[in-house]
Design a protein that fits this description.
Blueprint (H helix, E strand, L loop, with lengths): L17 H13 L1 H6 L4 H31 L5 H8 L3 H4 L10 H18 L4 H25 L5 H4 L4 H15 L4 H9 L1
Length: about 190
């Protein structure tokens, strides 16, 4: 654990760093609709997201590798470096070079699926909300199946642990933009 030892802080934060991650994911969902409204196709939206994630990752990875090598004598094999550079390490069964990068593949999947759903729904936000709510429902079913049956495949396809937070952000923005539909979609938020 690289950043442990939070038990000695004067102020204790609930959920540790997870609270910050949850807020970040909710804001990502919240700003999805304004971002996607500005582009004419799903590919354009996805490319905009990718061009924000990859350059920052590519700038940070060499610094992280050098830092680990200089301070801990730790080095990484070729496969680990390549899968981290491509942002596919969890799918290839490789470790992250730095555990703080774990959110990036999840964001990439959410951006891809949200853009795909949005343009399949022909840019009709009510249909899009229904589609992501259905994805969220499937995610909940998967979580239940995983809990009771021990299924562990498809974790990154459904984003079991955090999808509800992305969807919550989208729904909050949708309701803010469409206050008249609050009563119809309120159950999704409460769920």
């Amino acid at each position: 654990e690289v950043y442990g030892h939070t038990e000695n802080w004067l102020i204790q934060f609930p959920y540790g760093g997870d609270l910050g991650v949850c807020i970040f994911f909710m804001l990502t969902g919240y700003f999805f609709l304004p971002s996607v409204r500005r582009v004419t196709n799903g590919g354009g939206y996805f490319i905009n997201r990718v061009t924000r994630l990859y350059p920052a990752l590519w700038a940070c990875l060499p610094i992280t590798c050098i830092t680990y090598y200089l301070w801990q004598g730790r080095y990484f094999d070729f496969k680990t470096i390549v899968t981290n550079v491509a942002m596919v390490s969890p799918f290839a069964g490789c470790d992250y070079i730095d555990e703080s990068y774990w959110t990036l593949p999840l964001q990439l999947i959410v951006y891809l699926v949200f853009a795909l759903f949005y343009f399949i729904a022909k840019r009709k936000e009510s249909k899009f909300v229904l589609m992501i709510s259905s994805w969220f429902f499937c995610d909940c079913l998967w979580l239940i199946a995983n809990q009771f049956c021990g299924l562990h495949t498809g974790k990154y396809l459904l984003i079991v642990s955090y999808l509800n937070i992305f969807v919550l952000g989208v729904l909050l923005k949708y309701l803010e933009s469409n206050k008249d539909k609050y009563k119809r979609y309120a159950p999704y938020i409460l769920f």
